[in-house]
Design goal:
Elements lengths: L2 H11 L4 E5 L16 H13 L5 E4 L1 H5 L4 H14 L6 E6 L3 H14 L4 E4 L9 H4 L5 E7 L6 H4 L2 E2 L5 E2 H13 L5 E5 L4 H11 L4 E3 L9 H8 L7 E5 L1 H4 L7 H17 L3
Parallel strand pairs: 1-2, 1-10, 3-4, 4-5, 5-8, 8-9, 9-10
Antiparallel strand pairs: 6-7
Helix pairs in contact: 2-4, 2-12, 8-9, 9-10
């Protein structure tokens, strides 16, 4: 199945729009994992196993692995998800942004080395920064559009074009929907801290899936997010939560605590679908 097909199946099977972000910080791990060489894999795998039936996707952030020379543990983690929880897509959160042969190498990294089902991409350099990923027809390409950080407005809210009135993030959404998504592989990142912009992007792109970070530790409003971004069939969203789930517990029962928060978050999202 393609990424989009896997995502649609997971929405239905798990009755979930929750994407569990995997941002492992060993300083926050339970004490019993501190001396393990494979602590990052062990921590994340336990989180995955505890929450897989509650999620529509998992999203490991590559920097947390690369910074600690744990790329091999990232490979093992994605393989574990695919083996133990088939059908739940894995989004490699890398936010790559380059062109030409360099972008081709990043695509190889994401899809051939790590075997991710989708990857996040920065489209600032235009369609040249997107095309190399579209060469993998069964994979997803998730473009940054309207991000959840306060500084996102520095550029994303600038007006573009001769007529004015269209914001840069709106132009990205329009290009993605009308020109770049010829193969149906593209999704967009739109932060939960800006519900009005989620609604605006949804109006531009139709039923295109949206990856929505910013709930939980970043303070995004679940009700406003779902109401602004859901599609007519009450799907269309991958609402990401990372830290609130990962670090819900601090002892050997951390995975059970993570499951409880994940279930509460999934159910809170479903209240507004």
């Amino acid at each position: 199945m393609t990424f989009i097909q896997q995502l649609a199946a997971a929405w239905q099977k798990n009755n979930s729009l929750l994407c569990v972000g995997l941002d492992p910080d060993p300083a926050k791990f339970p004490v019993h994992l501190h001396n393990r060489d494979d602590a990052i894999f062990a921590f994340c795998a336990d989180i995955v196993d505890a929450t897989a039936d509650l999620a529509c996707a998992f999203k490991p952030q590559i920097a947390y692995f690369a910074a600690r020379r744990a790329e091999d543990q990232l490979e093992a983690l994605i393989a574990h998800i695919h083996e133990k929880h088939p059908g739940i897509p894995v989004i490699l959160d890398a936010k790559r942004g380059d062109i030409g042969s360099t972008a081709e190498q990043y695509a190889i990294e994401a899809f051939e080395r790590y075997k991710a089902d989708a990857v996040t991409v920065n489209p600032y350099m235009g369609h040249d920064s997107v095309d190399p990923y579209l060469a993998y027809p069964d994979k997803g390409v998730i473009l940054l559009c309207r991000t959840s950080n306060p500084g996102g407005s520095d550029l994303q809210f600038l007006e573009v074009g001769n007529s004015g009135g269209e914001k840069l993030y709106e132009r990205v959404a329009r290009l993605a929907a009308e020109k770049w998504n010829t193969t149906g592989q593209i999704s967009l990142v739109v932060g939960a801290t800006f519900p009005a912009e989620i609604a605006r992007v949804r109006a531009i792109v139709g039923d295109m899936p949206l990856l929505v970070p910013g709930i939980g530790a970043q303070g995004g409003d679940i009700a406003a997010t779902v109401e602004a971004g859901r599609t007519k069939n009450a799907t269309g969203l991958m609402i990401n939560s990372s830290r609130a789930i990962l670090y819900a517990g601090k002892d050997e029962n951390f995975a059970a605590a993570a499951r409880q928060v994940a279930q509460e978050t999934r159910d809170a999202i479903n209240l507004y679908r």
